[in-house]
Fold this sequence. Notes:
The strands form two sheets. Strands 7, 8, 9, 10, 11, 12, 13, 14 and 15 form a nine-stranded mixed sheet that branches. This protein has a six-stranded mixed sheet with strand order 1-6-4-5-3-2, covered by helices on one side. It is an alpha/beta fold. Helix 1 runs parallel beside helix 2, helix 3 packs parallel to helix 5 (180-192) and helix 17 packs parallel to helix 19. A hairpin with a 3-residue loop joins strand 4 (70-74) and strand 5. It is 38% helix and 17% strand. It folds into two domains: 3-112, Chitobiase, domain 2; 118-460, TIM Barrel (Alpha-Beta Barrel). It has helices at 40-47, 86-99, 132-144, 169-174, 180-192, 208-213, 242-256, 274-278, 280-289, 294-311, 342-350, 360-363, 374-378, 408-415, 418-427, 434-450, 465-481, 495-505, 511-520, and strands at residues 13-22, 26-31, 54-61, 70-74, 78-83, 104-112, 118-124, 149-156, 159-160, 196-201, 263-265, 315-319, 333-336, 355-357, 393-398. The protein has 19 helices and 15 strands. Bound molecules: acetamide and zinc ion. Acetamide (ACM) binds at residues 269-270, 319, 337.
Amino acid sequence: MRCANKLVPKPDKVIEKDGVFIVPEVFTFSNDSFPSWCFTAFEERMNSRSGTGQVCITVTRKDDIPKEGYVLEVEEKSIQIFASDERGVIWALTSLYLLAQDGEAACCTVEDSPRYEHRGQSLDCSRHFFTAEEVKKIIEGLALAKINVLHWHLADDQGWRIESKKYPLLQQMSGEYYTQEEIREIDLYARDRGVEVVPEIDMPGHNSALLAAYPQYSCTGEKVEVKKTGGIYPVILCPGKEDTFVFLEDLIKEVSSLFRSKRFHMGGDEAPKDKWKECPDCRKRMAEEGLSSEDDLQGYFSCRVAQTLRALGKTVILWNEGLLTELVPENAQIQYWTLNYRETAEKWAREGKPWIYSDMFELYLDYPHSMTPLKKVFETVPHFGKDNWTGSMLGMESCMWCEHVASGELLEERIFPRVLALAETTWCREGGDYQDFLDRLRKVLDAYDAAGICFTKEDHWDPEGKARRDEAISYMTGSLSQVEPGTKKRAAPSREFVSSFFKKFFKLSDIIFLIKAMIFKK
Ligand code: ACM
Ligand code: ZN
């Protein structure tokens, strides 16, 4: 098989040459300027392969190669890599590993670099907890596709998952959590694979687990339960109390020190503000700060937390509800997920400010393949309405929420191979040939098999007909029945949202079945 047919994402340029490179028993490195951890993942992957002899990989820094880019020269008896940064070296070795999966590779030169700097996947470990080993498996699967960001959603209504030495009640109330040692180890494991781990602590809403442990930082101080099912709960931090900020500053210092990333996701989505309306502390804060709405109070809250993070050298990311106010933290990055508030996100993008595209109709992988097939992810073109606008877009990210995903196997099947379609569209400047992508994908998935990573099998990548409809309807009815009554208190979805929901996830012919299924709870 020719080199170009063995890689996802498709490289910029491949020049095939005569000769065949045979995988040796031992690789050595000749390297003058990169840290040796750049080779760790390659060495671990190659450990399970056998061969004879020894080959030297020469790694050379070449500053005119774009960020994360590389040149890989595969010769019969030697390998050369040129790159300007660590990730370039890691991606070159990832390509070499994939090219040589069968124990040999046709000699070639690969010249390659990514289109977007943010090629991400989120992972919700609050709604269901996944072990550190499972998280590493997901990271390995992302790294094989040159996805470079794991956005790790670590706290929500259903669980706080980070060991805090200062506030241990947080993890004690939630049960399962990652120790600080495990988090540091995961962060290092990801670094060795070119993956930045961006933690998310969602604030000020989605906070039942935190407030179950420390209810004094809510408006009323009332007892709160760690939630067991999905939904949007009217449980929220109180930005009227100065103590809330003192506590958050302390906690954020501890949490953010566990991660190398210079970014920190502070959420900001789906925050029902009813409690703020009735809270004397919140009213006082609004009067003192001249804030005219609860959305502005959230803006005030975000700016103060962002200030703490800035002092720690971290830039904040916010979901696009963060733009419901003019009070947006300096240098914030906005992650667009819902068209409920599309206009403000569009304005932000048109002003040339940084943002990440994660449209829920195209890039939410918790929806089954029947609702978000592989081809739909592959064909995702960032857009606002009919207008394509990507000027200041940092990249795209697919999201994995886990209210309805309890096993590692299902988690992997939901993410893989759909995230490889995202990898292709965020890496390649040209492309769009789905059949060509599928041909390469089939080959690349051998590496996922070798790593023991589950993925959805080909007959279900783009389901059609009854299989598609049954799965979609059962997902919708199943997930609705798991939401606690009275909790779906999201801001009223716009008509555009409701219409998009049905049009983008269902066909007209499905609607009658959907209504029946909802009524009779099929
Ligand atoms: C989200 O899906 N609430 C960001
Ligand atoms: Zn309050």
